[in-house]
Amino acid sequence: MRASSAALPAVTAPERGLPVLPELAERLAAAARTSEPEPAGGGAALRAAACGYWARRALPTSPEDVLAASGAAPLLLALLASAGGDVLLTRPCAAWYAPLARLAGRPAYHVPVPAECGGVPDPVALLETVRRVRDEGGRPRVLVVSVADDPTGTVAPPELLHEAGEAAVAEGLTVVSDETWRDVRHAPRETVFPVPAEMWPEHVVVLTDLAGAFLPTAWPAAVARFPAAGRGAALRERVASALAGVRAELPPPVAVAASYALAEPEPVRARAAAAARVYGALAGAVRERLLAAGALCRPPQAGPYLYADLGELREALAARGITDSVELEDRLSAALGRPVPGGHRFGDAPDELRLRFSVPPLLGGDDARRQHVLYAPDPPAVPEVARELAGFTAALTELAGG
After folding, report:
1. Which intervals hold domain Aminotransferase class I/classII large (predicted)?
2. pLDDT of residue 5 exceeding 70
3. Residue 199 Cα distances to 80, 162, 171, 203, 206, angstroms
4. What per-residue confidence (pLDDT) applies to 1?
5. How far apart are CA 94 and CA 162, in angstroms?
6. What is the C-alpha end-to-end distance of the chain, expressed in Å?
7. Between 3.40.640.10, 2.60.120.10, 3.40.50.2000, 3.40.50.1820, what CATH number should domain 10-264 receive?
């Protein structure tokens, strides 16, 4: 069985996000003169704010079970390096997972997702993959899941997560639950977010990238919640040592802003709700156009991404010299003037004609336009957005042979 080998692509680097919330900017500026460095793993104020955030989501947490770092990538890298053994990822999965496993010296193996969602492995396929890895002399130790998923934008149903989690725990795996987009569900009252750490408290590490729902993408910050029992304490100590070794502490002004955001005052809650609404409206508009062109796409439910399969258009695409996701990415990115990464960057085979679409580029190129779209009653109808969507439709129609 072969481990994942695709390199981390620059095309999936963080995009320009929403305008900076004024209240966050004020707190960052007020702390700019701070000369005392933030402790490795996060200071007391930041870790306490993270505990409050999780407590409001029915996950009581002690500060000694929390670590913070300058972004989700350093935290996941330290986690994979500290946990030991091989890593299991979904197919598809976020483009940055597999490269971090390789950087940590851990072979990574992909497990297919079920038809209804991404982010969580098919339970039967998970057990089969564990068996095969062990038969080949491997040591599967960690499973990374993303219940509110990048790249598919779906939210895993509770029953599916429970089956996959039961299989993982039975096989002795530590589950890393990336919950970055849980607070950007497009219809939060209609979409249940199942919480792995509630189901298996001794086996789940929760990872949240704050540069998702809470902070600007240019201010990298992330927090992780470790189990209070079982292997949690020992794993946390190893991760803390790794973070200290690579100086992954937060800059003090970002730590102050992150603490404010995690306390979820009204401006932060309002911004998260507005982001969920605009992402949902734009993702829905993009999906409508994909379906009209003949593509397949799961309904997006959270975050700014959706994932499409253009396999039904294989014959039309081949007539235009497009036979794999690499060529599809090149052609559509050139047509739209912005990156549209192919499925090969997310663990899918290149001959699968899949793409991840991102809605933030539809918001516009400057903060004034993005602010206007963010609070518009009908975001897809804003003239600038409508023009972007019309260009997207035209590019798809040309590729599909229309």
Report:
1. 39-317
2. no
3. 22, 8, 16, 9, 12
4. 53
5. 21
6. 41
7. 3.40.640.10
The domain segmentation of the chain, as residue ranges, is 10-264, 267-399
Two tokens at 203?
């086996």
pLDDT in tens, 304-325: 999 999 999 999 999 999 999 9
CB within 8 A of 332, min separation 6: which ones?
340, 355, 395, 399
357 phi and psi angles, rounded to 5 deg:
-105, 145
User: Model-level pTM greater than 0.90?
Assistant: yes
Q: What is the pLDDT of residues 63-78, one digit of tens each?
A: 999 999 999 999 999 9
Tokens found for residue 318: 């081949």
In 63-151, the DSSP E strands lie at: 66-69, 86-91, 108-112, 140-145
Strand partners, 204: 175
How many Å apart are CA 59 and CA 166, to the nearest integer?
Answer: 19
Q: Is the CB of residue 79 less than 8 Å from the CB of residue 205?
A: yes
Please list the alpha-helical segments (H only) found in 207-342.
210-213, 232-245, 252-262, 266-293, 314-318, 325-336
For residue range 188-216, list pLDDT tens digits in order: 999 999 999 999 999 999 999 999 789 99
**Residue 173: burial class (beta carbons within 10 Å; 0-12, 13-18, 19+):** buried
Residue 402's identity, in one-letter code, is G
Q: Are the beta carbons of 87 and 144 closer than 8 angstroms?
A: yes
Which class does domain 267-399 fall in?
A: alpha beta
Which residues touch 170 (CB under 8 Å, ≥6 apart)? none
Structure tokens at 126: 């998970």
* Residue with the two structure tokens 């929390």: 66
